[in-house]
Write a structure and sequence with these properties.
The structure is a single chain. The longest helix is centred in the middle third of the chain and has 46 residues, at 62-107. The relative contact order is 0.15. The radius of gyration is 25 Å and the shape is rod-shaped. By secondary structure, it is mostly helical. It is built from 6 helices and 2 strands. Strand 1 (153-154) and strand 2 form a beta hairpin. Helix 1 (2-22) runs antiparallel to helix 6. Strands 1-2 form a two-stranded antiparallel ribbon. Helix content is 73%, strand content 2%. Its main location: membrane. It is found in: Membrane. It is a multi-pass membrane protein. InterPro entries: Tetraspanin/Peripherin (IPR018499), Tetraspanin_animals (IPR000301), Tetraspanin_EC2_sf (IPR008952).
Length: 222
């Protein structure tokens, strides 16, 4: 029963993280969205495997219980591999995000600007590293209104009211690369925490299933 609940929990955690990351999917590579997707699939599989374990325990079938333990062990190995891959990729994460943001700000097409407006408003940031990136990198050399603090946006002209260039009192001063990495790192902590908790439950499930299968066989042989 505990593994059934944990499978559901890991599925929900993966879905929550994926929904958060997808808000900024224009700038993040598939490798960033892969871990929560794997977690969702893993949670579903664990839920199904746990059902098999419950059925095997009810039927007192050593074969089903050992199959349950084996499947749990395979899932555990997959989780471990995904965790190692995510740790390796993490070292290149900031540079990958930075390159994506720089390419996007240089293009500054309609889709790019919609994505920038979304990330700058939600994360309260401006530019890649600094607001000045819009002056040096973008096609029209102009800071978008989404760089402004909400109370200073002049909708009719599409930028900050009476704002000098890069006015510190009116524009967000932090770059989006750092803010986006912080958001992804926060989600990574959630995934790692959930993953470690589930891993301990899986190990316990494997041990108990093998013990129960052995006990059932021993009783039947006597």
């Amino acid at each position: 029963m505990l593994l059934l609940i944990s499978g559901l929990g890991i599925l929900i955690a993966g879905a929550v993280v994926l929904a958060d990351v997808n808000q900024f999917s224009h700038f993040v590579e598939g490798k960033v969205t892969a871990p929560p997707i794997v977690l969702i699939v893993t949670g579903l599989i664990i839920f199904l495997i746990a059902s098999l374990g419950c059925f095997g325990a009810i039927k007192e079938s050593p074969t089903l219980l050992l199959a349950y333990a084996l499947l749990l062990a395979i899932i555990f190995i997959i989780e471990l591999a995904v965790g190692i891959a995510a740790s390796v990729f993490k070292s290149d994460l900031e540079m990958a995000i930075k390159n994506s943001l720089q390419d996007s700000i240089k293009r500054s097409n309609k889709d790019d600007m919609m994505a920038w407006d979304n990330i700058q408003r939600k994360l309260m940031c401006c530019g890649v590293d600094y607001p000045s990136d819009w002056r040096t990198m973008s096609a029209n050399k102009t800071l978008p209104a989404s760089c402004c603090h909400p109370e200073y946006i002049e909708e009719s002209v599409g930028h900050c009211t009476e704002s000098p260039a890069l006015g510190k009192d009116k524009y967000f001063q932090e770059g989006c690369v750092g803010k986006l990495k912080q958001r992804i790192d926060k989600n990574a902590v959630i995934l790692i925490g959930v993953g470690i908790g589930i891993a301990f439950i899986q190990i316990l499930g494997i041990v108990l299933a093998c013990y129960l299968a052995s006990t059932i066989r021993h009783e039947r042989n006597h």
